[in-house]
Amino acid sequence: MKSFKVDNQAGFTLLEVLIAITILSLLMVSIYSVIENSTTTKDRIITEDRDKMQLEMAFARIETDLEYIYSPLYYESTQKEDTALYTKAFKKAPPGLGQAQDNQNSVYDEKKSRFESLENYVGLSETGKPIPKIVSDDTKSIIIYSSAGRRLIKDSKQSKYLWIKYSVENAKDPINKDAPLVLMRTTISENIFNDELDWDKEKSQPLLENIKEFKFSFYDEKREKYVDTIKELTINPQTPRLIKITLTYQTANGETYEGERSFRPIWPKTDTRKALEDKYKFQSSGPTGGQVGGDSGNSGGIIGGGAGGEDE
Predict the structure, then answer these.
(1) Which of 99, 160, 115, 94 is nearest to 304 (CA)?
(2) Does 36 reside within a domain?
(3) Which one-letter DSSP state was computed for residue 98?
(4) What torsion do the CA atoms of 129, 69, 121, 131 make, to the nearest 10 degrees?
(5) Position 154 in a domain
(6) Using an 8 Å Cβ cutoff, are 55 and 259 in contact?
(7) What is the pLDDT of residues 77-105, one digit of tens each?
(8) How far is CA 250 from CA 140, 212, 246, in A?
(9) Quick check: 275 and 126 in contact, CB under 8 A?
(10) Within 10 Å of residue 214's Cβ, how many Cβ atoms?
(11) Most exposed residue of 68, 99, 130, 268, measured as fewest CB within 10 angstroms of its CB?
């Protein structure tokens, strides 16, 4: 057998191998940089979206609660206005006022006395509906009576009506020292006609954290400007038409959001006093010459009547 000797042994030199390794390393560094930048961008966007989502969810909850603020004063007058206009129209006090002429009047007087004495109500409407009080003693809290609730447990003592309290407190262990405030939401949906509402016994839920500044304000229609508390409204102090929230919110990465949102109840604009005046003006000049149904009835007085409204 013959053997062949190969003299030309072609291959990579050490220099060529080093050059290839260097080029490959540069490519890997570039690819790694692209991946790292993409991951960092994704994490930043997710964090920003989470912060923005938390803020928007808080505003959505507040909007629902404020839109469904309930008070009979949005569609009818107070019992005091009804009594005054009735007396002016018919030159006498409404039947049953101040004395129990029959069982119905006695029940009404008892109900009237009860709700005028309760801390959370301001009396009765012209048709005998209790008028819940809106409380806003400072710019960082508000207590409202809303119909935005829902029954959580079947056959429980709950309805769509509930008391809601918003308050701004200092966080016990704030993650962000520059924004230590938290917006709390507390609700009472059972025994809503109690003499006193014990908010300390109810569990509060944090609605929005990382707040630097927060403020409620209310639009005064007469002065055409916002005021800090309900008590400062010159007209309709228990039926605010526009509520504004101003806040400074700081995200987890230190970005600050400053803004304001305005919310309004869904009740249509109604001049309840004019409606009541028109009712008694029509009745006093009508065929009966006075109250509809005669003096023995109460369809036009403070018991059972009224200029519109809702069924009990």
Answers:
(1) 94
(2) no
(3) T
(4) -20
(5) yes
(6) no
(7) 888 888 888 888 888 777 654 443 444 45
(8) 18, 7, 14
(9) no
(10) 20
(11) 268
Q: Confidence band (pLDDT; 50, 70, 90) for 299?
A: very low
Query: Residue 164: left (phi > 0), alpha (psi -120 to 50), or beta?
Result: beta
Q: Which is it for strands 205-220 and 121-124: parallel, antiparallel or unpaired?
A: unpaired
Average pLDDT (191-218) is 89
Q: Report the half-sphere exposure of 273 (CA within 13 A, side-chain side).
A: 5
3-class SS of residue 209: strand
pLDDT for 286 equals 53
- CA distances for 248 relative to 46, 58, 150, 173, angstroms: 21, 14, 31, 19
Q: Does residue 97 contact residue 83 with C-beta atoms inside 8 Å? A: yes
Task: Quote the tokens at residue 43.
Answer: 């994490």
Mean pLDDT, residues 172-177 taken together = 81
DSSP state of 269: P
24 lies in some domain? no
List, in sequence order, every beta strand (DSSP E) within the chain: 121-124, 130-132, 141-146, 162-170, 181-188, 205-220, 225-227, 243-250, 256-263
180: containing domain: 48-272
Give the alpha-carbon dihedral of 64, 70, 74, 78, to 10 degrees: -160
State mean pLDDT over 25-45: 79
Residue for token digits 């009224």? 306
Split at pLDDT 50, 70, 90, the class of 157 is: low
Select from 53, 66, 25, 30 the least CA-distant residue to 245.
Answer: 66
Encoded amino acid at 60, one letter: A
Q: Cα separation of 233 and 305, whole Å?
A: 29
What is the token pair recorded at 297?
């009835």
The SS3 assignment for 110 reads helix
| Structural domain contains residue 249 | yes
